[in-house]
Amino acid sequence: MTAPLSVRRVLGDHPFAEIGKPSAVAVSEDRGLVAVGGDLGYLQWSGDGTGGSRWRQHRVGVYGTADLRCRHVVESRWPVHSVAFHPTLPLVAVGTGSYDGGYFFEGELLLVHLESGRATSVLRGKREVLKLEWESPAELRLLLAPPDEEEDEERAHTHAIEVVVERPDWAAVAPGSVRQEELAGRWIAYERPVGGDDVAERLTALTGEPWWEPRRLVWDVRGLADGRVLACLEEVLAEAWLPDGRLDWSVPDEEGGRQLVVRERDAWVNVERRRVRYVGRERVSEPPFVARVSLTDGERLGALTLGRSVTFSTRRDGWLALRATEAVMRRRPQPVDLVPPGGDTPTRAVTLNGFDLFNHPFPIRRAGRLLLLQGSEREPWRDKWVVEVDPYGTGEPRRLLPLDWRTPARHLFGGPGVEVGGDLVHAGAVHDGAGLLPGNAFVVRRSLTDGALRWEFAADHPATAVDGDEDTVYVAYNSGELVALNALDGAIRWRQHLTVDGQPVVPLSLELTAAGRLLIGTVDGRILDCSVAP
User: Fold this and answer.
1) What letter would DSSP give residue 174?
2) Where along the chain do the CATH 2.40.128 domains lie?
3) DSSP-assigned beta bridge partners for residue 94
4) Residue-wise over 170-200: b if at least 16 C-beta within 10 A, else e?
5) What is d(CA 36, CA 39) in angstroms, rounded to the nearest whole number?
6) SS3 state at 59
7) 180, 198, 336, 500 - which has most CB atoms within 10 Å?
């Protein structure tokens, strides 16, 4: 049976794409394999945190050294510190973990089976494994963080506990069978590594290229009228790809673009600025800005520095709203700057109640109005409504419909959406103190006239992107699944987990550029040009 979605080509493909930013590497020359641990990144930026629930960003990939083809990919709950191939068995040991920021050091020891790709977590209880190496086929040497800071808070961060765990057959070790009593040992000084440049250098040597760099997090993607593809991603302000698949131009950036608005000859790019660096003892951060770049060659044509982070809302006729997202302002009214079609600067501003990156993100594609979410004045996360900001009106946002279609109203988070046939199709999630519960993510179609519910679709994972037309709505999920829904009744047309060369990929952004063609930006920095079945 033919899959409903097929990948026609992959833009931005690169070796070791599946693991993101590398943190650990081991090479087995006799097997012709390399194991790499890495980090795909947070699904969160200053204007949107709705896609990060139930997301595991850390990966271990196993590759062939001859062709660099990925054999297996394994998710990790914690950052990957160390990997080591077993001397004789088809296993690679993986040490993971992190400090929780307040008391505990958590992690696990994984054994990845090279033939099946199955991963077994063998520690009974959580322990951060800082480093590991095989002493012999039966002995595995571990450097561990203590379970917590209780015994010696200072030494817990500057030393490690050295132990040797012995098993006659590591291939037969059962999950959770290495007891905490076996992990007592002597303290030794240990400086935790930072960065990962040495790992990148080793991967560069394997590729034979002058320098290998990871690509991550394609936050937005757009098809241009001339057949090119425009994207913004982590550490790239914007880039353009030619119709033949070659890179046309790219503008590097310290953090990267997060949203795109394409106009006739240029594009607006929402550029993130959250990182803090130190100059001596002083914390320094640059102000966020909105860049205007030429579609011809990526040249910076101008920038708006508003002194605050913003998120975009757009209208089909070209109006652009720049809503302030600063966390310190979320309990106070915030400005929304309005830029007219073809204009280079805001011509006026209106005011909305506070914003936060879980409750209020509401990027709606193909909208005939400037649509945003607004909550109550004192508690903006409550009593949220979909409101319209009329750039020609009085400046007061007009309530269209409550975010929740049920009575009594629940606490819902915002999410991406698209206007279809005069109705609003939008994703979101039900807030729960225990996190995102199964079935609590949703996509709904509602009337923009009276808020009436047309249909509802429930899911277990949050949506990262939504687009569609009057026939089909496409929903991307952080589980790696893409779901096509009948736009009229919400029935599932098809659903498919995305793969490239047989390995899973996770969609982060998408655009329906024409009937039967989807552009999908992935978490691992690639852009998939796809054909979809009707």
Assistant:
1) P
2) 17-207, 222-308+507-534
3) 83, 110
4) beebeeeebeeeebebeeeebeeeeebeebb
5) 10
6) strand
7) 336
Report the alpha-carbon distance of residue 61 to residue 20 in Å, rounded. Answer: 10
3-state SS of 493-525 is EEEEECEECCEECCEEEEEEEECCEEEEEECCC
Which residue type does 230 have? L
CB burial readout 27-66, b (16+ within 10 A) else e: bbeeeebbbbbbbbbebebbbbbbbbbbbebbbbbbbeee
Torsion, Cα 203 208 209 211, to 10 degrees, reads: 30
SS3 content of the chain, % helix, strand, coil (to 5): 5, 50, 45
CA-nearest of 60, 358, 499, 416 to 220 is: 416
Third-level CATH fold of 222-308+507-534:
Lipocalin (2.40.128)
Assigned CATH for 17-207: 2.40.128
> What's this model's pTM, rounded to 2 decimal places?
0.94
C-alpha distances in angstroms, 265 versus 133, 293, 299, 328, 343? 56, 9, 11, 36, 12
- CA nearest neighbour of 320 among 265, 381, 247, 262: 262
The answer to whether 521 touches 220, Cβ cutoff 8 Å, is yes
Per-run averaged pLDDT (10 residues), the chain, 534 residues: 87 96 95 97 95 96 96 96 97 96 93 96 96 97 92 85 96 95 93 83 90 94 96 98 97 96 94 79 80 96 90 95 77 87 90 92 96 93 95 88 95 97 97 92 96 97 97 97 97 96 96 93 98 86
Beta carbons within 10 angstroms of residue 266's beta carbon: 19
First to last CA, the chain: 15
Output DSSP code: residue 123: B
Tokens of 398: 């007009």
237/251 Cα distance (integer angstroms): 5
Structure tokens at 110: 């994984």
Cis check: omega of the bond before 408, within 30 degrees of 0: yes
3-state secondary structure of 485: strand
